[in-house]
Write a structure and sequence with these properties.
It comes from Hungatella hathewayi. Its cofactor is Mg(2+). Keywords: ATP-binding, DNA-binding, Isomerase, Magnesium, Metal-binding, Nucleotide-binding, Topoisomerase. With about 650 residues, the chain is of the alpha+beta class. It is built from 20 helices and 25 strands. The strands form 5 sheets. Strands 1, 2, 3, 4, 5, 6, 7, 8 and 9 form a 9-stranded mixed sheet that branches. α3 packs antiparallel against α5.
């Protein structure tokens, strides 16, 4: 049971803060947009921890007009009393790495913050930070610049700004432009994360406000039905087989909460969370759920005579095809693989989810036989489709053998060092021809594709595997694919570190990009999650001044700036497509690692990705184009 006292004695100090600014990636994953947004999540997670401990039901998150972010909670407030180190505990928390209540088992039952690292890391990576602690009837104040305190303590304690009846903590911070590639927070990623947090905490209200010019909005996230509502939202627009099934339980201090529902779409969408953190790569909690669920469906199918003695069991994929599920655990001391907490490794989470799922689902299915039969029917249909598609896959494999280049289109590179190699998926034979001539043959491979590839959202597996363009890409990448029933994807066999989509900057090119991204997300999502997928950004213009050097311009804004800063005459050439460029121009603008511009594709979370993928295949072209350029992280890439 968590104690109610959260004071200076709850704060444990482990080490100093010096290393954070030198190696920020160790603490927040990256210095790109993803790492930037992670700063907000760290502060929000600390506020959510107060909620989990039973002391906070409201959080306010504000993107300020000046580019900073404010997070306020109605919790107990960071301890401000004198710490045994001789100063206010708040100063210790904000200026010392690994100083936090998360290390005191009595202060928090479960915690989502990075083991107490959060606040101090955000402080170290911010140009400035201000802190107000509403506690003991006073507003206590502190401020920092790049992690260094700028407020003088009074007898070791924080100065006060006045009296208050409120309790809680309010932090405002401005990310440091010396550390981050960009300092503009991604608003849609933040809203998605906050909404997700509201689903996982039904008694918590989160108010999001954007005060940035032109983006002003206020949204209240509050989901009283919790993860049941989450599953309903994930399945919006699909035909449900039954109402969401919900259960929870606790085993050895590990709290388990699960909601799932089957729909008429034959794909699996299972999201895992530990202490409110989305475990993108799954882990032991999902393993426990999947294993027990598969066992139960096979057992019930035999008991009901649906599976005969001679019949093979349903596979795990059979039993889960059509399932949307949210599996959330609260763990007092979780173990994660990797610094960024994307995979849960705690063995006791497997046992807890396995046991709770077995006990609660047996109780539910024994009382709801018709729903059980409907779920087993989904597994039957899935098994029939699997067998038909396995046959189609076998036929396709026997014909093509998945040879490295089955149709002769691929112009492969000479090197076999995957870390240095990159492959360009190029629209059209003419552009492909120029690219083959222009490339660095040692490290750059070119794969031309003809026209728009198959829309995998609307195609069966046999049609997908029979498509020539898709087969060629699977062959070339060398790592297999994840979708369907083979699940033979192995990223260690990927032949290229960068997969670059290189299409024209027009509507057709946009459509091809979206089809390619949908294929990669559905069949090889690990390529996107691990940062291997990029979009080439060829220039729209070339300016040739009467005096001075030629210059490539990438959009209308650059052209406008050029016109304002260059008064002399110049010739303007507009590129309608990659096919109009000769080999030298293509090298200079799109292939040369020293000068090209690539955008790295990032999909922030699976729920958002699923929504985006469905949106991409809609009839409206503008939203698709916006996705590609708004949900890609622009970066100058050195090869």
């Amino acid at each position: 049971m968590a104690k109610t006292q959260y004071n200076a004695d709850s704060i444990t100090v482990l080490e100093g803060l010096e290393a954070v600014r030198k190696r920020p990636g160790m603490y927040i994953g990256s210095v790109g947009t993803k790492g930037l947004n992670h700063l907000i999540y760290e502060i929000v997670d600390n506020a959510v921890d107060e909620h989990l401990a039973g002391f906070c039901n409201q959080i306010w998150v504000t993107l300020e007009a000046d580019g900073s972010c404010s997070v306020k909670d109605a919790g107990r407030g960071i301890p401000v009393e004198m710490h045994k180190k001789g100063m206010s505990a708040e100063r210790i928390v904000l200026s010392t790495l690994h100083a936090g209540g998360k290390f005191d088992n009595d202060a928090y039952k479960t915690s989502g913050g990075l083991h107490g690292v959060g606040s101090s890391v955000v402080n170290a990576l911010s140009e400035r930070m201000s802190v107000k602690v509403y506690k003991n009837g006073q507003i206590h104040y502190d401020a920092y610049e790049r992690g260094i305190p700028t407020v003088e303590l009074v007898d070791g304690l924080l100065p006060t700004l006045g009296r208050t009846k409120e309790t809680g903590t309010e932090i405002n911070f401005l990310p440091d432009g010396e550390i981050f590639e960009k300092t503009r927070f991604k608003a849609d990623w933040l809203k998605s994360r906050l909404h997700e947090t509201a689903y996982l905490n039904p008694n918590l209200q989160i108010t999001y406000q954007n005060k940035r010019v032109g983006e002003e909005e206020t949204v209240l996230f509050h989901e009283p039905e919790g993860i049941i509502s989450y599953v309903k939202e994930l399945n919006s627009g699909k035909a449900p087989v039954h109402d969401p099934i919900y259960y929870k339980g606790t085993i050895d201090r590990v709290e388990v909460e699960v909601a799932f529902q089957f729909v008429d779409t034959f794909e699996e969408n299972i999201l895992g969370f530990c202490n409110n953190i989305f475990t993108q790569e799954g882990g032991t909690h999902l393993a426990g759920f999947k294993t027990r669920f598969t066992q139960m469906i096979n057992s019930y199918a035999k008991e009901l005579g649906i599976l005969k003695e001679k019949d093979a069991n349903f596979t795990g994929a059979d039993t889960r095809n059509g399932m949307t599920a949210v599996v959330a655990v609260k763990h007092p001391d979780p173990i994660f693989e990797g610094q960024t907490k994307t995979k849960l490794a705690s063995a006791d989470a497997t046992k807890a989810v396995f046991t709770v799922t077995g006990d609660e689902l047996q109780r539910y299915f024994d009382r709801n036989l018709e729903i059980l039969k409907a779920v087993i029917s989904c597994a039957e249909k899935s098994a029939k489709i699997r067998k038909a598609e396995e046959k189609a896959k076998t036929n396709m494999l026997s014909k093509s053998k998945f040879s490295f280049d089955s149709n002769g289109k691929l112009a492969n590179c000479e090197s076999r060092d995957a870390e240095k190699c990159e492959i360009f998926i190029v629209e059209g034979d003419s552009a492909g021809g120029s690219a083959k001539t222009a490339r660095n043959r040692m490290y750059q491979a070119i794969l031309p594709i003809r026209g728009k590839i198959l829309n995998v959202e609307k195609a069966s597996m046999d049609k997908v595997l029979a498509n020539a363009e898709i087969k060629t890409m699977i062959n070339a990448f060398g790592c297999g694919f994840s979708e369907g029933y083979g699940n033979d994807f192995d990223i260690s066999k990927l032949r290229y570190n960068k997969i670059v989509l290189m299409t024209d900057a027009d509507v057709d090119g946009s459509h091809i990009d979206t089809l390619l991204l949908t294929f990669l997300y559905r069949f090889m999502p690990e390529l996107i999650y691990d940062g291997h997928v990029f979009i080439a950004m060829p220039p729209l213009f070339k300016v040739i001044p009467k005096r001075g050097e030629e210059q490539y311009l990438y959009d209308e804004k650059e052209l406008e700036r050029y016109r304002k800063t260059h008064t002399g005459d110049f010739t303007l050439q507009r590129y309608k497509g990659l096919g109009e460029m000769d080999a030298q121009q293509l090298w200079e603008t799109t292939l040369d690692p020293d000068h090209r511009v690539l955008k790295q594709v990032e999909i922030e979370d699976a729920r958002m990705a699923s929504e985006i993928t469905e949106m991409l295949m809609g009839s409206e072209v503008p939203p698709r184009r916006r996705f590609i350029y708004e949900h890609a992280d622009e970066a100058e890439i050195d090869a």
